[in-house]
Design brief:
Blueprint lengths: L1 H5 L1 E6 L2 E6 L5 E4 L13 E6 L2 E9 L2 E2 L12 E2 L4 H4 L4 E4 L7 E8 L4 E11 L6 H11 L1
């Protein structure tokens, strides 16, 4: 019961979304939406992390770019195939590790310039929190 109710908490402060993942959550959704126009030439969506190179995830009109992706994220990140049409660039992150904690930046690019859309701070916490720990955590965040 408590894993479902308290496993993921989200807060937003000053354009930075903080996503806290607790317990045994298998995946997290890093939100990123855009209401503006995409570049006419070579539009792409890039998820990056400042302390990791190459990119976390790179989506082009033909699909994702696994060649340009950091190997530690391979097979663990995805976006909807129609993301460039819907402007929903949210990233699904699966098989979370403690080392996945960090700041992730969602941006769009035309291959020359990059426009930062949002920043998500992902905090992956240890597994096996008790109900009491979840309730304390929940009360401290509210």
């Amino acid at each position: 019961f408590y894993r479902c109710c308290f496993s993921i908490l989200t807060e937003t402060f000053k354009q930075v979304t903080m996503l806290h993942v607790y317990g045994e959550a298998e995946s997290a959704l890093l939100p990123c939406f855009y209401g503006g126009s995409l570049p006419e030439k070579d539009p792409s969506v890039i998820w990056s992390r400042n302390d990791r190179n190459p990119k976390v995830f790179h989506l082009r009109p033909g699909g994702d770019d696994p060649e340009g992706q950091n190997q530690i994220y391979k097979g663990r990140t995805s976006m909807t195939p129609d993301a460039l049409q819907t402007r929903n660039f949210s990233l699904t992150f699966s098989n979370l590790l403690l080392s996945d904690s960090g700041n992730y930046i969602c941006s769009i690019s035309d291959g020359i310039k990059e426009l930062k859309l949002t920043e998500v701070q992902l905090n992956v916490k240890g597994h096996g929190l008790t109900l009491h720990q979840c309730l304390l955590l929940w009360s401290n965040l509210n």
